[in-house]
């Protein structure tokens, strides 16, 4: 899979090195089971390159350094490469100052945000990062889409598998709503509103209004607004509002992101880190189960299981999408 | 109100200065409309002092400084005073390093977490802080309470009123569920499970199981776990699991907290800060409304409105609670 991604990226004008790194990220994301932001997303990334939203020659550059904080410009380069460079820099800043923060403006969709949480944890750091997005969700009390789903990632390093959450502020992604509709399934819990303003699990009804539900109703709406404001203020880049006003309004580009690393190993030491984290996870896994046959997973555990399975058996692909990629 | 709080705190053994500062925090919280963590909570704080969970002579002490990060010990002092000292220190660290982070262990309930968000914003800083709690919510897939509702606060400074969210990871607090039950009202949206395992808005049914719902279902469960792990690892203090094992298991004490400040004014400058934030808020307030008669408020706006009203008309109190405080 990686060599196929790399072939296409080199053909589109990336340097050998950048194509290799980007292909690695797309492949790891797919291997971890986040197909929507790996293999399935790859053709759209190529489309964005062709439309000029993504600059294959661009690398992120530091604008200003202020102590443990730095501001970077993404120069409209590929989002996952940009975010990886900036998390690497946040980790370096954390090694110097115990905590490090990089804000990047003018960057592009980072694909799977969780990647940068795993990256921080691999370096022994706690990772805290988020991105803003295109306006894709109504604010609480509003009907039209003016706030972003602004995914937030938190990670803690752990021997045997990091603990990682990677979650958007919308209860369901557009992709999930569409796939439930195609399969004639209800959403597992309420996910938005129908045309009468009633809350519903019916994906076809939600598609009529695109009034998707923020996590925790008013709570996720507020979180989304603050994540956007902080990313905007720290990076000096576009807010969700500004992203919605760019040319080619359906496209999502020129985003703002924040990447924070905190040197957990230095602060806590390996012993306390391992013990404190493991006793919390054991306690949670020992819960009285809702369904006796369903194991309670800690955040990140399913990813690790999928990774192992896909490394053994190969990464499953949708034939049509894979054919499309081979034809690029 | 403040002088009454102060009188009681001095009687319980606080120094004049500490009693004054704590009384100020309890009063501001009440004035801002968060009665549950101000005037209504005050008698329980006194009870915790009498039981020895809160030490009136204790002040927080720095354990270790590492660059832009410091570890503090709360020494079981009053939670709101401890948190205020630590956010002040995080702000000082932010003035030196642009970003500052303080983790505190062995502290007590900080009352209204939003206070420390407003405090950071008053100093021109972005505030990011959270606390862990007693185990009061089941993890996703579990039935018994093993994770905390771990409130998270985010704030951005703004002329004319800061933007602040202060939200627990449970959709509703115990207090809200109880008050809806007393008033024979349904919860505004689903908030937990009944004894048959169905999701419900009925507060009496939820009280039977205490299976309260995390915000965003599995998402809030994951966020809660990560907030707890990060607070535990950074502070070297108790996790939610450990808090649940302390003597007097119904009491909530010896908590772990994280307070992060980022110098927004230095990073963004007053002009960009004001403009970028205000254009986002204006856009949100201009949304097509769900209810024509209901204004869409930005996070923090309602607090400011309540504060103005209460400063004009006085802070409303429950007579029974106020009588109880006067008798202390």
Protein model, in words:
- The first copy, chain A, is of the alpha+beta class and 328 residues long.
- Among the domains of chain A are: 54-170 and 214-267, Ribosomal Protein S8, Chain: A, domain 1 (2-Layer Sandwich); 172-213, Hypothetical oxidoreductase yiak, domain 3 (Wheat Germ Agglutinin (Isolectin 2), domain 1).
- Chain A is 44% helix and 16% strand.
- A seven-stranded mixed sheet of chain A has the order 1-2-3-11-4-7-8, with helices on both faces.
- The two termini of chain A are 14 Å apart.
- The mean pLDDT of chain A is 96.
- At the A-B interface, strand 3, strand 7, strand 8, helix 8 and helix 9 of A face strand 3, strand 7, strand 8, helix 8 and helix 9 of B.
Number of helices of chain A: 12
Would you tell me which CATH topology of the domain at 54-170 and 214-267 in chain A applies?
Answer: Ribosomal Protein S8, Chain: A, domain 1
Return the string of H and E elements of chain A: HHHEEHEHEEEEEHEEHHHEHHH
As a percent range, the share of helical residues of chain A equals 40-55%
Biggest sheet record of chain A? 7 strands, mixed
Q: What characteristic shape of chain A results from the CA principal axes? A: globular
Please give the oligomerization state of what you see: homodimer
CATH architecture of the domain at 54-170 and 214-267 in chain A: 2-Layer Sandwich
- State the largest interface: A-B, 84 and 84 residues
Work out the strand percent of chain A: 15-25%
Unreliable stretches of chain A (pLDDT < 50, length at least 5) are none
Mean pLDDT of chain A: 96
Summing up helix and strand content along with how strands pair, one would put the structural category of chain A as alpha+beta
Number of strands of chain A: 11
CATH class of the domain at 54-170 and 214-267 in chain A: Alpha Beta
The Rg value of chain A, from CA coordinates, equals 20 Å
Query: Could you give the distance between the termini of chain A?
Result: 14 Å
Fourth-level CATH superfamily of the domain at 54-170 and 214-267 in chain A = Malate/L-lactate/L-sulpholactate dehydrogenase, NADPH binding domain
- Strand order, main sheet of chain A: write it out: 1-2-3-11-4-7-8
């Amino acid at each position: 899979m990686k060599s196929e991604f790399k072939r296409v990226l080199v053909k589109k004008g990336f340097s050998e090195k950048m194509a290799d790194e980007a292909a690695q990220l797309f492949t790891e994301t797919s291997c971890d089971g986040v197909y929507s932001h790996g293999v399935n997303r790859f053709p759209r990334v190529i489309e964005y390159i062709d439309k000029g939203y993504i600059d294959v020659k661009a690398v992120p550059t530091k604008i200003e350094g202020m102590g443990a904080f730095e501001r970077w410009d993404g120069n409209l380069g590929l989002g996952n490469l940009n975010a990886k460079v900036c998390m690497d820099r946040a980790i370096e800043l954390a090694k110097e100052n115990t905590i490090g923060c990089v804000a990047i403006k003018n960057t592009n969709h980072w694909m799977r945000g969780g990647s940068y949480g795993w990256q921080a944890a691999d370096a022994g750091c706690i990772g805290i990062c988020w991105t803003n997005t295109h306006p894709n969700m109504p604010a609480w009390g509003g009907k039209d889409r003016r706030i972003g789903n602004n995914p937030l990632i938190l990670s803690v390093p752990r021997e045997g598998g990091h603990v990682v959450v990677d979650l958007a502020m919308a209860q369901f992604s557009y992709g999930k709503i569409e796939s439930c509709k195609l399969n004639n399934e209800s959403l597992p819990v309420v996910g938005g509103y129908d045309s009468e303003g009633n809350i519903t699990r019916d994906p076809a009804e939600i598609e009529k209004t695109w009034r998707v539900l923020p996590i925790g109703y008013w709570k996720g709406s507020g979180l989304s607004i603050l994540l956007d404001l902080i990313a905007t203020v720290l990076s000096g880049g576009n807010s969700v509002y500004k992203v919605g006003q760019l040319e080619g309004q359906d496209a999502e580009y020129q985003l703002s992101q924040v990447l924070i690393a905190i040197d957990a190993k230095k602060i806590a030491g390996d012993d306390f880190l391992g013990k404190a984290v493991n006793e919390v996870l054991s306690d949670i896994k020992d819960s009285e189960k809702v369904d006796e046959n369903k194991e309670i997973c800690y955040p990140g555990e399913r990813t690790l299981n999928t990774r192992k399975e896909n490394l053994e058996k190969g990464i499953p692909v949708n034939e049509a999408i894979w054919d499309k990629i081979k034809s690029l």
